[in-house]
């Protein structure tokens, strides 16, 4: 059963280009089993006292299935690794040790090929095996060599999977530690009404004061990778909502929210105790929405109750435009890439003007983000933006500092409203 040069080349291609995962290993088992004309191929993982069949390929209902376990003392695998049985057995009838094993007669096993699977650090993972119900004298050393090449490929795939598992476990532990340490901390960035220049809302932003020091989006992405994305979002939202009662009752909170959380059904309970009219759920340009119909359905009862929806990063990319058209938001937030230097860039002004006109036609409110200069503020006011936020007017603040800002704004407004007395 010699493998042709083309077939061997395809093995090498698989080894260098195939993705990691169980599906790849299943394809390897099927390819080799079919080439050898054997009845069953499998990968077994050795544990302390038993072995588990991780991958199995056979036609129809075979004698073993993925997930089955057997003692290491049963069968051929450990005996091959220990040298009690050879790796290549064309006819089990020629090997008394094989014939003494109950499964040789019960299955039956007429021919058998088995090679150990070693990981890059030298650890024995298990074995890669094929067997036929009948003897096959055509099996030879070249078939065994090809099987060893496949075993190396399988080892590469297994090692990649193990690395992914270890990485996921490490991420899970880090995020669990973050949740246990009452992270993230919440800061509130003020949003101002363009007409009165009074504070009308606050964007709630997460800050992680733990190692490794990195941006909030990296923490939330890692949480999603670890399967704790929704949990971390709920944790952050609950922390943000705790500041609502302290902030002026006439202001609202905008809360970043992923489609996954919106679809999870957990928002109703999480937001339930809060006045719906003071809540805005904000979905970003970077959020991937695969099911707009489901998302609209999930948001419907919240919106009917008074919760508003905002689309963030408008103008930053195509996804925000799709979000706007599909979700019909109450607020559209112009991305800072659009608002910065808008006073000197006619193309940015044209784009912002188009979005502001669209919002006016559809009844949405425009919030200009990232405003850092007086000239940008003046340009956006002339274009007709409704609300504004940015470092020019207020940075993200811890709750005590946000309350202090409210007092300063109130004092300034009061002073400006007082009649000026001049000496005659």
From TrEMBL:
GO molecular function: cyclic-guanylate-specific phosphodiesterase activity
EAL domain span: 168-410
Gene3D superfamilies the UniProt entry points to: 3.30.450.40, EAL domain
Protein name per UniProt: EAL domain-containing protein
Organism: Pseudomonas eucalypticola
